[in-house]
Amino acid sequence: MAIRQSTNTKLPTISLSLVYLLRESKHYGTLFFKPQKRKVTDTKHKEIVISRLDHLGAGIGHINRKPVFVDGLLPGEKALVQLTEDKKQYARAKVIKRLVDSQARIKPHCPIYDQCGGCNLQHLSHSGQVEAKQQALAELMSKFAATDKELIRQRRLSATIKTIVVVLVLVSSRVTVSCSSVFAKSRARTLSMSSSARCWHCH
Fold it and tell me: Taking residues 177-197, what's their average pLDDT?
C-alpha cells in the first residue's frame, strides 16, 4: 500500500509590505541602521589670542570658551587661524597669519625648522623656554601629585576633622563606660541597702 505524502505543508508567512521594502531597498541594513551625519569642521579663519603653552609647546587659546591648541604660537600673540580638528572638549588649528608677535619670539637657528617638525620651541628665547618648561612641570605636578595649595589645605582640613571626630568618639565611649560603671555601683548599693533593710525588718 503506497503512502501518499501530504502536500499541505504550512510555510511561514511574510507580510507583503516587508517583502516590498526588502525588494526596494538596496541595502537591508538601511532599514534598521541610520548612520549619523559626519560633523563638518568650520574652516573659516578666526582670530585667537594665546594665553599659555601646553607641556608639548603648543599655544593654547580659546574660541567660544573652547580651548584651541595651535602649534607655533606663543603666549600673548594674536593670530588668524583655521580649525583642523574640532572635538567636543577641545579643538586644534593651524596658523594662517600672525597679527601680533610676542617679545620672546626669536628667529629659529635651524633653516628648516618650519618644515622639519623635530623641534617645537626654537622660535622661543632661552629664558622663555625655561619659564615655559617650569610652568608645564608645575601644572603636571599640581594635576597628578596634588601640590596645589588649595587642594593641600582642603586635605589638611579634612584630616583635622577626621581626627576631631575620632577623639570625640573615644571621649564619648569613655564617658559612657564611666557612666555605666557608676550606675552599676549605685544599683548594687541600692540593692544592698534594700536587702539589709528587709533583713532588719524581719528580725
Answer: 55
Local structure of residue 76 (DSSP, 8 states): T
Whole-number percent of the chain with pLDDT over 70:
60
Cβ density class 53-62: b for 16+ within 10 Å, e for less: beeebbbbbe
3-state secondary structure of 111: coil
69: which residues sit within 8 A by CB, 6+ positions away? Answer: 54, 58, 59, 60, 90, 91, 92, 93
Q: How far apart are CA 100 and CA 121, in angstroms?
A: 18
CA dist 100 and 117 (Å) reads 23
Q: Does pLDDT of 57 surpass 70?
A: yes
Residue 77: its pLDDT value, please? 94
User: Quick count: other Cβ atoms within 10 Å of Cβ 113?
Assistant: 16
pTM summary value: 0.53
Fold of 46-144: OB fold (Dihydrolipoamide Acetyltransferase, E2P) (2.40.50)
Per-residue cell: 181: 560603671
CA distance to 16, 21, 32, 42, 201, per residue, from 26 (Å):
17, 10, 13, 33, 112
